[in-house]
Design brief:
- The chain has 125 residues and is mainly α.
- The chain contains 4 helices and no strands.
- Helices cover 78% and strands 0% of the residues.
């Protein structure tokens, strides 16, 4: 079996599952759609699975776009810090490329600082 064929098979399986899940959520939210979908399911399974693969591909593309947009916004706010009260990056990562480990450590330190600040704010004065 060709690796591209295997990759395509796995990707189509993923998209089928994703599309079926998205359709299931829609069906659960609307009783009229539920009856319509059950009738379709009884009539033609293969056509429905192709529809789910297409819907899964669309959902995957939308999710990918959403995540990429979020990451780009995150990168732009990291590269150009604003004065919105966000904690500055630790000095250990300034002036050199950050690795995933140093980024994780910096974020962990920021979370710890935010938690400590929240605890101080929650304490009665």
């Amino acid at each position: 079996m060709n690796s591209e064929t295997l990759l395509q098979l796995v990707q189509n399986g993923f998209r089928l599952t994703l599309g079926a899940t998205a359709s299931l959520v829609e069906v659960l939210q609307d009783p009229a759609k539920r009856e319509e979908s059950l009738a379709k399911l009884r009539q033609e399974w293969s056509h429905l699975s192709e529809t789910w693969v297409t819907k899964g591909a669309t959902t995957e593309a939308e999710a990918r776009t959403l995540v990429e947009t979020w990451l780009n916004q995150r990168r732009s706010t990291t590269s150009a810090p604003s004065d919105t009260g966000a904690a500055p990056r630790p000095a250990s990562t300034v002036g050199r490329p950050a690795t995933a480990q140093t980024e994780l450590q910096a974020l962990t330190a920021q979370i710890a600082a935010i938690r400590a600040e929240l605890e101080q704010l929650r304490k009665p004065q």
